[in-house]
Protein 1
Amino acid sequence: MNRYILVAVLAASTVLAGCQASAPSTRNFSHLRLPDTPRAAAYDAAYAALAARYPIATSDRATGTITTEPVENRERTGGRQVGDLVGMTRRVRRVATVRVTDADNAAEIWCKVTLAQHDTDAARMFSNDLALNDAPTATAADRDAATTREQNEVWRVLRRDKLAERTVLQDIRKSLGMADGA
């Protein structure tokens, strides 16, 4: 009995405490340290570098976060689906996020570019597998008629695009007038 109470208390404390937003780390972002660079100058350079390659969706100077709109194209994804084995191209998109933070007399740039694949057709094909019976009982509103096309799209994140991350960080270095390897 006491074990169940302990589990209930732990579960309730986890739910009530919530989750903190994770700080950027080198596990999930590419990193660039800019010694003797003010945060404002680093933010302006990051904004200019991102705006040259991607359309900016949101930017917040107070938090130092810049996020881009998705940029779509077609390319080989290297996945494990049948079409990938024969070299089919798939619809993919990239979204870049840059965070600018302060650190001991330096600015730090954290960059992440995610690559996502369009999987709406696969999601629709397997959505009926989740139903309780085989009879098509869902109305049009239950399926997707009550939402927009963008809301009905399914994008599966494949991986980070580390080459694009390094390119953005290199562009930031260039806009600040720094050497490539410094």
Protein 2
Amino acid sequence: MDISGQAPLPKTEKKRSKNECNIRPYVLDDIPFLCAGAKKYIPELPNYKNITISERRLDYLLRHNHGSASHFQCWVLVDNVTNELVGAGAGYCVPGMVTFDLVANDTFLFVHPEWRSMRNVVMLMTAYKQWAMARGAKMIMATQTGGYRVGAMNEIMRRQGYVEAGFQWMLRLDDAYLNRA
């Protein structure tokens, strides 16, 4: 009891901010997290519908490109308090198909839903963009990530300096297409 004769109120823990994160380049021990996250979140993207994500292929990509930041890099989003991995982003920067100019493209970007915030996504996007610029990329591409409203994501992209570059069309060779009348 306190001096008023009342029972003390229970102490409430301060609610943690989802922005208590930093990023760092991935290490080999992060690969299981990266494979599991990519396998879970990439199929949620409309352009990867009906595509099977191979953890074996992704594991190979991450292991064989680790330490080769001249053409591939991956960053992990880390909870500052628990050191838990809560998101990641990766990209590659290579000569284009018809040029020797370097072109960068993202491989994946995901953040666990409970950690999604503008700050966390922008940190991962900025690391990718700065890395590609440091490599001398003439063009840096980024695809729409899942988990955000299209308008909000478009605004993030514009603030990062990206411009819309047309539309992506694809032909899904699924049963519906192959069996059409």
Protein 3
Amino acid sequence: MSDRVDSFIFNLVQPLRDLGYSVSSDPVIPGVRARLYAVLEKPRGAVFSKYFNHYLFLDWDDDLFSQPERLLDAQQWFARFVNSTYKVPHAFRLTLPNLALVAVSEHGFDEETRQIALNRYFVPLLNGETGQIMLADLQAKSLTCHYKPHYRQTGSIPLEMAVLELSDFFRQLVPEGKLIRQ
């Protein structure tokens, strides 16, 4: 277990609460070992594009053993957990879950994992949710996340709002931190 990673994640608790998140340390999510789970208490967005942000923070080295396959598995378990809290079937949702799984490391990430974060995202038409994987690299002082294409994509507003919010938090905790989007 990394003290630096745990300290980084612990320091997110109060800023998240200040922005209206319900925060759970060491959450119980089947199939996933995580450090912190935060969900908005009230939805954001307009009438037909409301969303709840759901953030899950994991220790890349300790919780995921630095393995990209485990990262992808964790994202699937996280999506199942969040979707189980919604009573409306995926196709009929007017309020979407917007998931961000954030892996935090003090030793960096391999290229395969960086490519997953840069190129993989989840859109409402396919599975009734939006979401992405982000990588907080404390060694390189960088936050890697989904690249927003030049064309408008389905679910781009909640995806981008999560990036802006989490990158602000990252820069508060890592003042020289940078956002990597390819």
